[in-house]
Amino acid sequence: MIFDTTDKKLLEYLQQDSKQTNKELSNKLNLSVTAVYERIKKLEKEGFIDGYIALVNKDKVQKNFLVFCHIKLVKHSQDYVFSFEKEVANLNEVLECYHLSGDYDYLLKVLVKDMVEFRDFMVKKLTTISHIGSTHSMFVINEVKHTTVINL
Q1: What domains can you pick out in the chain, each with its CATH number?
Q2: Which pTM does this prediction carry?
Q3: 73 near 133, Cβ under 8 Å?
Q4: Which of 17, 28, 70, 79 is the most buried (most CB within 10 A)?
């Protein structure tokens, strides 16, 4: 597949607002509606577009207490790593989980209602996962920048 500047521009427009109609996109790109449709289908088929989502306002759903948790495992064996990753993937409060280099093994992005709900999450869910040696949590004071747009 050839990935050209028009495809790049189309992805940029879709990242800004994926609900734009093919007609709106065709006007912006100076292409026919059919050409836009075919390019989108090609980008989806080739894996450039993973899916489409709705971004929910955290305040409206009362889930605006954001916490980053560093996790250290007791041991770095393959069994411990796979076991931890499988268990943490099932925690709805965890939005993102990254395996890291450095002092900590994992970084979790956790979203809950408030401190009470976070404590409940820590005590009843996170710390019950096998192989966790220690945790270190940081609470977000202010979200300075948040984007889902990948600069192409």
Answers
A1: 5-45 (1.10.10), 65-139 (3.30.70.920)
A2: 0.88
A3: yes
A4: 70
Q: What is the DSSP string of the chain?
A: ----HHHHHHHHHHHH-TT--HHHHHHHHT--HHHHHHHHHHHHHTTS---------TTTTT--EEEEEEEEES---HHHHHHHHHHHTT-TTEEEEEE-SSS-SEEEEEEESSHHHHHHHHHHTGGGSTTEEEEEEEE-S-------PPP-
pLDDT value at 68 more than 80: yes
Encode pLDDT of 5-44 as tens digits: 999 999 999 999 999 999 999 999 999 999 999 999 999 9
**Amino acid letter at 14?**
L
Report whether 136 contacts 70 (CB < 8 A).
Answer: yes
Comparing CA positions, the residue from 93, 140, 96 lying closest to residue 119 is 93
pLDDT the model gives residue 53: 94
* pLDDT computed for residue 26 by the predictor: 97
Pick from 72, 55, 73, 150: nearest CA to 111: 55
